[in-house]
Amino acid sequence: MNTQQATERLKTLKNDLQRRASAIEADLSVRLDRDSGERATQVENNEVLRGLQLEGAEQMAAIDAALLRIQDCAFGKCVKCGSEIGAERLHAVPYTPFCIDCARSLR
Fold first, then answer.
1. What pTM value is reported for the model?
2. What pLDDT, on the 0 to 100 scale, is given for residue 37?
């Protein structure tokens, strides 16, 4: 994947995440139901939405970091060991900062 393709893909992913974040924010702003059963369900749903919101924010931060690596001509190189990140890995997770070996070592 060349840097132009990567930039386009990362920006598309970020736009999708921003749309999802807006939808989550709208769902979280809905008032809770007065009925205790419904309220309990809404509270549980809101907890899931907050988790998705946090995950989306983390992905957007990773995408921003990847876009900076593109600007710095460091995209596609592992930030830990400096090795090339495999094309398949970049295709699967275009914002990854780690080669597969370093990602495994972080687990």
1. 0.87
2. 82
